[in-house]
Amino acid sequence: MGLGLTMCVRSRFQSSCLQWAWRTTFLKHIQRRHQGSHGWTHLGGSTYKAVIFDMGGVLIPSPGKVAAEWEVQNRIPSGTILKALMEGGENGPWMRFMRAEITAEGFLREFGRLCSEMSKTSVPVDSFFSLLTSERVAKQFPVMTEAITQIRAKGLQTAVLSNNFYLPNQKSFLPLDRKQFDVVVESCVEGICKPDLRIYKLCLERLGLQPSESIFLDDLGPNLKAAASLGIHIIKVNDPETAVKELEALLGFTLRVGVPNTQPVRKTMEIPKDSLEKYLKDLLGIQTTGPLELLQFDHGQSNPTYYIRLANRDLVLRKKPPGTLLPSAHAIEREFSVVGTPFYVMEYCPGLIYKDPSLPGLEPSHRRAIYTAMNTVLCKIHSVDPQAVGLEDYGKQGAYIPRQMRTWVKQYRASETSTIPAMERLIEWLPLHLPHQQRTTVVHGDFRLDNLVFHPEKPEVLAVLDWELSTLGDPLVDVAYSCLAHYLPSSFPVLRGFNDCDLTQLGIPAAEEYFRMYCLQMGLPPTQNWNFYMAFSFFRVAAILQGVYKRSLTGQASSAHAEQTGKLTEFVSNLAWDFAVKEGFRVFKEMPFKNPLTRSCHTWARPQSQWYPIGTRSYSSVPEASPAHASRGGLVISPESLSPPIRELYHRLKHFMEQHVYPAEPELQSHQASAARWSPSPLIENLKEKAKAEGLWNLFLPLEADPEKKYGAGLTNVEYAHLCELMGTSLYAPEICNCSAPDTGNMELLVRYGTEAQKARWLMPLLEGKARSCFAMTEPQVASSDATNIEASIREEDSFYVINGHKWWITGILDPRCQLCVFMGKTDPHAPRHQQQSVLLVPMDTPGIKIIRPLTVYGLEDAPGGHGEVRFEHVRVPKENMVLGPGRGFEIAQGRLGPGRIHHCMRLIGFSERALALMKARVKSRVAFGKPLVEQGTVLADIAQSRVEIEQARLLVLRAAHLMDLAGNKAAALDIAMIKMVAPSMASRVIDRAIQAFGAAGLSGDYPLAQFFTWARALRFADGPDEVHRATVAKLELKHCI
Ligand SMILES: Cc1cc2nc3c(=O)[nH]c(=O)nc-3n(C[C@H](O)[C@H](O)[C@H](O)COP(=O)(O)OP(=O)(O)OC[C@H]3O[C@@H](n4cnc5c(N)ncnc54)[C@H](O)[C@@H]3O)c2cc1C
Questions:
Q1: Given this model, what pLDDT does residue 5 score?
Q2: Fewer CB within 10 A of the end CB, N or C, for the chain?
Q3: Residues 217, 237: contact at Cβ < 8 Å?
Q4: 288-292, 956-960, 985-989: the lowest-pLDDT one
Q5: Would you say 747 and 697 are in contact if contact means Cβ atoms under 8 Å apart?
């Protein structure tokens, strides 16, 4: 055949398995096509001489649609941009920009202000504008390009008549090939906008035509109305495909001759047309002499796919890529199992392929219908009885995943270029957690939205493509594979995803729901272990990506993106590992859990023989925890036993502390004592950027509160305990890493209880470190350790709440960056005791907030945040700022003050470690009464006592964190109370011993000891008084005894 490969072509009817595929998908639609549902060919003369196109919404995506997608991704209230674009009508900023009366900068300024006012949040309009004008978005619809070519080929003129603007570089924004048009009329050039009739007349004049000789396409009603009033024929464009059909009907000739999603054959992918033509003619018995038309689908890079038109036959050819291939990769024979040949030909099935799984431009209900159709067709495939269709030998029965694991591990090893820790963990973890395979069906093996051909007009699957990985296997693998896009970002180069979009707004079912839909349709019980299937699917993707990467290194990449793609292996394997962790937690939660109150329990699953003594933090006293152990709940007691990525994160943080944080402490401390202390230190801001760049940012949010890792690093409480302790060794590190109180508690509150709008407005700036916040509960006139005593009133008035109250010790309220006060007050003093309180989000610039004075702790002001005494006088807050609802404040405060507060304990361990380290260094170098202090017995005893107390407290912190991870915050209540009772006084004692060993210097500002001591002392109140925690411990202990 001359293709360098032994090629064999057969008619589709010669393969039983292919027949099956067609029978289930292609044939009925091919028949429908022949029945004329795509009747595009009624030719006839046209009375029209020109077609005039609007640009945005007709030739390229409309600003409104781009805005809708952008708002979803940026969590801006939906419709803000569109509303702001229309605002002010003809004299609004948008229309003045269109007439070039204001510059791009002026427009963005005015427009930004307008959007922010409307949405009550800061709207980064620059980023919207960049997206709107980006090459990725501002691309002419291929269907329009085709139509214009056909119109001009018939001798008609074409024009663009667009409301358009100048870019900052003074060129008008026209992402079109001007050569396609005889006339281009732009509002910014003419100083007139549609629907002003003058601009239409100008266009007609330049075309030299009467109104009735032209057709005008626009997506906006007023623009069309104006054109129609002049006698121009109009077409309203809702979607380009339908508009072209309407235009075809008016013009009387076809505008669609090309094949969608194809391009000329790429140079490296050329195949000899002559020999192929001869072969096909012989095979198919074609007599005509017309040449073979060959195009390449831009789809299917792993196995290049071609469109062939020969005589009246539309065919698709799929073949192996050139070069040496990995064992069992590109098993194209799977699509044609009886032949085992490197290429095959099938009939072409026209329809739509949705390449972007977020389905831009569609209505939410349409998106949902598309995903439902996808689910339905998968159920149909899985319902086929392999025996009944002669596919019982299509693959082995049972043990599908173990076999797949062997294949993919082998393939991964063959293309491995360096050790990827997550891949190693998965290779160990997956076989240990294999599900019991319930069913064996035909599985597709690569079931994704962009492998489906949809009906152009309704949500119905016409064909399923890419069967090369199909076999007999566990059908849930296909279901998981359908959900890959849910977890990948939209910028992911190979498999586009939408994890950065709001699924509810898009209308796309979440992965859990997709699984549920599947089970419901198949009549199966809900899938419990779907996280395992997700982990396995992402593992497989990672192995494939590694293969692509390896090929790119050896110069055989079938796409320019290959190299970039392969480097993503690590990213995908980490995603897979996240699912493995989630599955591990699920298994744990289902295990019969020993009552944490029983004294005899030990909290990890490892056998006793593996207990090791705990040493200092600087060496690893525990052998490396294997992932399998970690996932079964091993309590990680030393940083060296953390899983490799978290251990790496720990070491990165340690390095950062040593390189940047400790050296900055003297300057930061002197800033706090300077006249500028009530302004944020520029050095802190600078270090925040560095921490962000190193991924040492927002580490605090527990995985359990943020399982999708949408907002934070997704660490478990135990993992964070180790990192938080390290941050606690400096008073400044928590803020530098955006992990400081009270922001952390407030952010967690917003994640757990906030609405999407509240999150967009408050959570995002806090997560970015742009804003700070405070929590206002304590009141001078009542004993506030009992939150039910709080008296501040929250009263309803129209669509507002009005608050009045006197608060104090409000940490962070004096900080100029503080934008949010999370306010606790009473909405109903007559309700049951724990339902009187509510939590409101109060913007700090609301009139009526009067800061009376900063309070001091042992004389320290703790600037710039401080601890303020404040009055709230008739402060009016919109009702939508209520969190969860009236009367739910106690519940929220419990959530906020419970787990979040063990962060203080973690940091207190850090204070203590640093104090002890400073003490040890000091006593070795200081000589008194003829020998170094370290040789004094009392000093040795103090060191020993401190070490023991730190270790005891750390174990208790880790145990509390571990129980929170395994059994939830409620089950860990006793442990949380115990460590809150223990940690501050332990730290006070350890720091006090260090101060004593330092002599008077220990009390000075030359060392962090005095500040540590102050904080440790303050935390015996700020974290709730010791007595309250003691009371809780005793109560739970007694309850247990009874
Ligand atoms: C540095 C610092 C920062 C703070 N930051 C904030 C903040 O940001 N927001 C905020 O709202 N508050 C904050 N606070 C206030 C803190 O939460 C309260 O001080 C604490 O809840 C105790 O309330 P109280 O001061 O009113 O003490 P009270 O309730 O008056 O209690 C006084 C004492 O009574 C005793 N007592 C109380 N209950 C019991 C009991 N059940 N059994 C036995 N004895 C008991 C204890 O010894 C207790 O110390 C902060 C405090 C400090 C010191």
A1: 24
A2: C
A3: yes
A4: 288-292
A5: no
Tokens of 362: 């569609």
Q: Which residues of 541-561 are buried (b: 16+ CB within 10 A; e: fewer)?
A: bbbbbbbbbbbbeeebbbbee
pLDDT at residue 561, as a whole number: 55
Distance 807 CA to ligand 1 centre (A): 12
Q: What is the CA radius of gyration of the chain?
A: 34
Query: Does the C-beta of 811 come closer than 6 Å to ligand 1?
Result: yes
Residue-level pLDDT at 861: 93
Rounded to 10°, the helix 717-727/937-967 angle is 150
pTM confidence score: 0.49
| Index of the ligand 1 atom closest to the CA of residue 741 | 8
Give dist(CA 810, CA 791) in Å, integer.
Answer: 16
Phi and psi dihedrals of 313, rounded to 5? -95, 130
Going across the sheet that includes 183-186, the strands are: 183-186, 157-162, 50-53, 214-218, 233-236
Among the atoms of ligand 1, which is closest to the Cα of residue 776? 11
| Burial 750-765, CB ≥16 within 10 A → b, else e | bbebbeebbbbbbbbb
H or E element at residue 364: helix 364-383
Q: How far is CA 728 from CA 722, 883, 904, 906, in A?
A: 10, 30, 8, 7
Report how far ligand 1's centroid is from the alpha carbon of 1020 (Å): 8
Is the CB of 784 inside a 6 Å radius of any atom of ligand 1? yes
Instruction: Round to whole Å and give the CA distance between 230 and 190.
Output: 19
User: Residue 440's closest CA among 475, 406, 469, 467?
Assistant: 475
Residues linked to residue 452 through DSSP beta bridges, in sequence order = 464
- Structural tokens at position 311: 């005589």
Q: Is 1025 in the pocket of ligand 1 (CB under 6 A)?
A: yes
Tell me how far apart the 2 most distant CA atoms of the chain are, in Å.
114
Q: Give yes or no for a contact between 487 and 499, defined as CB atoms under 8 angstroms apart.
A: yes
User: 785: which residues sit within 8 A by CB, 6+ positions away?
Assistant: 1021, 1024, 1025, 1027, 1028
Question: 413, 327 in Cβ contact below 8 A?
Answer: no
Distance from residue 746's CA to the centre of ligand 1 (Å): 19
Cα distances from 803 to residues 791, 811, 839, 873, 888, in angstroms, run 11, 19, 11, 7, 16
CA angle 518, 524, 528 (to 5 degrees): 80
SS3 content of the chain, % helix, strand, coil (to 5): 50, 15, 40
> 432 and 628 in contact (C-beta within 8 Å)?
yes
Ligand 1 pocket, residue 822 CB under 6 Å:
no
Residues 6 or more apart in contact with residue 146 via CB below 8 angstroms: 244, 255, 256, 257, 258
CB of 854 closer than 6 A to ligand 1?
Answer: no
Supply the DSSP string of 586-604, one letter for each residue.
HHHHHSPPPPTT-TT--S-
Using DSSP, how many helices (H) and how many strands (E) does the chain show? 37, 23
- CA separation (Å) from 557 to 302, 306, 548, 1026? 9, 18, 7, 65
The answer to whether the Cα torsion of 284, 286, 289, 293 is positive or negative is negative
- The residue among 435 and 1001 whose pLDDT is bigger is 1001
Q: What are the backbone dihedrals phi and psi of residue 580, each rounded to the nearest 5 degrees, phi first?
A: -60, -40
Residue nearest to atom 42 of ligand 1 (CA): 1027
Length of the chain measured in residues? 1042
Per-residue pLDDT tens for 376-425? 999 999 999 999 999 989 988 888 999 999 999 999 999 998 888 889 88
